[in-house]
Design brief:
The chain is of the alpha/beta class. It has 6 helices and 12 strands. The chain has a 7-stranded mixed sheet, with helices on both faces. Strands 1, 2, 8, 9 and 10 form a 5-stranded antiparallel sheet that branches. The protein starts with a helix and ends in a 9-residue tail after the last strand. It holds the Pfam family Methyltransf_23. GO terms for molecular function: methyltransferase activity. This is Class I SAM-dependent methyltransferase.
Length: about 240
């Protein structure tokens, strides 16, 4: 987010200066409106998948890509120790103003502390950006987990977008993994630099987790091909007796 248009929009809404919403699109989808009010939602206004993730949270929590801080604020009110991080300076400023006690402008790969729960929501696998980088991110997340810690991450299987009327699956085999997309964001006629974004189907995420010694399971499935996954340290194999 080189121009931090997202942060500017959050600040405008918080300060009562917003006159329009964010416009988003991807390389495989048309323009859509992202209402700024949605980014300031309360727990009761959150989709079920986010509510489930917050219910499953435990111990010391890291909120990755905290945005305006809605998830962190809810957990703080429940007595959790929470650290919120975001690469958007505006998002960090808004989170602080809203009352998030521990928030820092920081990329996930630069985080060094360890946690019991790591929350990566709102299509959390998007932070991995590219399929080839998933093992690198998972290894880093693994290093941030306490012994009985968990990563709660959501995503969507967008394979359905490539189905034809007969239920067949079509894709350009030279284009790479179907979940890799370019993400575009604009606000008040200002456009952000295109970002890489990754939608991971569960099978692919599960295989990637196993390859780095992590266990992955679905803990909630939504109505629109979305899911919430819980990732934890894989149990160690018992030593063979010779």
């Amino acid at each position: 987010m080189k121009k931090d248009i997202f942060g500017k929009a959050l600040l405008d809404f918080y300060n009562g200066d917003a006159t329009e919403d964010i416009i988003t699109s991807t390389s495989i989808s048309e323009e859509d409106v992202l209402p700024l009010s949605y980014l300031f939602r309360s727990y009761s206004e959150m989709p079920k998948i986010e509510q489930e993730a917050l219910k499953l949270s435990k111990g010391k929590v890291l909120d990755v890509g905290c945005g305006s801080g809605s998830h962190s604020l809810y957990l703080q009110e429940k007595g959790f120790e929470v650290k919120a991080i975001d690469v958007s300076e505006g998002a960090v400023e808004v989170s602080k103003k809203r009352g998030v006690m521990n928030v820092e402008k920081l990329a996930l790969l630069d985080e060094k502390e360890t946690f019991d729960t790591i929350l990566i929501l709102m299509n959390g696998t998007g932070v991995f950006q590219k399929l080839k980088d998933v093992p690198m991110y998972l290894n880093h997340l693994k290093a941030l987990l306490h012994e009985n810690g968990q990563i709660l991450i959501d995503s969507s299987d967008i394979k359905y977008m490539f189905e034809d009327e007969d239920g067949g699956f079509w894709q350009d085999l030279n284009a790479g993994y179907f979940g890799e997309v370019d993400y575009y964001l604009s606000y008040k006629e200002e456009k952000e630099e295109p970002m890489k974004w990754l939608y991971l189907d569960f099978s692919t995420l599960n295989i990637a987790c196993a390859s780095v010694g992590l266990h992955c399971e679905i803990v909630y499935e939504g109505e629109y091909f979305d899911y919430l996954a819980k990732i934890s340290l894989a149990p160690s194999k018992p030593e063979s007796i010779t």
